[in-house]
Amino acid sequence: MSYFAFLTEHGPTLLLGTVTTIKVLVCSAILYVIISMIFGLMRLSKNPAIQGIATVYIEFFRGTSLLVQLFWVYYVLPFFGLSLEAFVAGVVALGMNFGAYGAEIVRAGILAVPKGQWEAAHALNFSPTKRIKRIIIPQIFPIILPPAANLTVELLKATALVALVTVVDLTFEAKQINSITWLSAQCFGTALLIYYIMARFALVPFLRWLEVVAARKVGR
Amino acid sequence: MEMGFRWDFAYEILPQMLWATLNTIIAAGVGYAIALVVGLFFLLGQRTPSKIVNVINREIVEFIRSTPLLIQLFFVYFVLPQFGIKLSAWLCGMITIGLHFGTYLSEVYRGALEGVSKTQWEACRALNFSTVYTYRRIVLPQAFPIAIPGMGNYLVGIFKDTPLLSTIGVAELFHAATAVGGYNYRYLEPYTMVGIIFLTLSIPAAMWVRNLEKRVNVAQGKVKQ
User: Fold this and answer.
1) Could you give the ipTM of this predicted complex?
2) Which entry of A147, B21, B151, B156 is 20 to 30 Å from B3 by CA?
3) B59, B64, B73, B74: best mutation site toward chain A, by most A Cβ within 10 Å?
4) Could you tell me which chain B residue has the CA closest to the CA of A165?
5) Which B residues 103-132 touch A at CB under 8 Å?
């Protein structure tokens, strides 16, 4: 079968899988950004209990493998009476895992805001909440976006793992087509290409654009 | 079926899990060794004077870095036999991990080389040292400490990605857990134990890397002790 014939026959299926991959990516990206913000701030809390919880969370999720976490959420949580749909399990595992990495980025970003900004906010008698919300957080974006962009590309790659808990994404479809047709080079090659195009020509330019916008917002 | 964590079952499968852990460690070690060497080749491709080689090298690195390791594994495992190259799952896994993380390590090497101040090169030129001598005695001894933390991080990273090898049938820890779980129809204990084993191995490793990083920074005079 020529490659063109392969594409006309199986291309639509792969594209459907790509849509699911994008859905997983968007949902888990939103979840991981929220988690990293919360735990990044908790990590810097003066309260040892709050800081401890954040440290344990981060060390736990960074210390174990994503695949193990994914399988744990999908296959073990039902033992405790919590059955999640494959898609939800995948998004939760991805979001929580990458949230742990993101929290460290947020923490480093907050620490990188010049001390004078804290002192100025203090001098102007801003409340602690307002200080964080209005002065510090807006300034961390230009700092955290470059490492966060790397992490998000890693996230796109990691979404491939959800295929292993039966989410019908691009990887799943490629595996499925492979087991029917045994045209391994074509289906895995096409899947690799689609991931590459998504990362290089959609996700990365988008994140670069965000970086530019963030830098402009703080007047750089 | 009995609910909750069954300690007797966990104890029963413990020897099996520990044996499989050994395989995981071997896989991570071999994969890392290959990645270290592959990284050198990519670095070489990056630093050759030929522009065409530079561009091709960069595109290959970009491609490998922006596609999932999982599909790369499938690709190597399923496609090579169609070209008459029959490799075992182990070998496929090691090659793929080596290639994938080799691209990351080449970046670590590059950063380390660029971390050595340009004046060092100029001084060597002024003293009429040969390129080989400059690398061997001046640049590499200074670049190596800069590379250590990054290299350590990817060792831990490879270790955490070894469970992916189970998808092509490499009998490492995660594979063993899935097999045991499927046989007894209990996934709670095996998967929880995999998590605990990973934690007990990777947290000390990560702490060791962080410690190294601190010591390197101190030795470089970036931080006061």
Assistant:
1) 0.90
2) B21
3) B74
4) B167
5) none
Q: How far is A46 from chain B (nearest CA, A)?
A: 23
Contacts of B99 in chain A (CB under 8 A): none
CATH number for the domain spanning A59: value is 1.10.3720.10
When pLDDT is cut at 50, 70 and 90, the band that residue B14 belongs to is very high
Alpha-carbon gap, residue A196 to A192, rounded angstroms: 6
**C-alpha to C-alpha distance for B90 and B88, rounded to whole angstroms:** 5
The domain total for chain A is 1
| pLDDT tens, position by position, A11-56 | 999 999 999 999 999 999 999 999 999 999 999 999 999 999 999 9
Domain boundaries, chain B: 22-217
CA angle B219, B31, A64 (to 5 degrees): 75
Going by CATH, does the domain composed of B22-217 fall within 1.10.8.10?
Answer: no
B44 touching A (Cβ < 8 Å) = no
Pick A76's closest partner by Cβ from B63, B72, B192. Answer: B192
| pLDDT tens track for A123-167 | 999 988 888 888 888 889 999 999 999 999 999 999 999 999 999
Q: Which chain B residues have a beta carbon less than 8 Å from that of A59?
A: 203
Nearest in space to A159 (alpha carbons), one of B3, B69, B174: B69
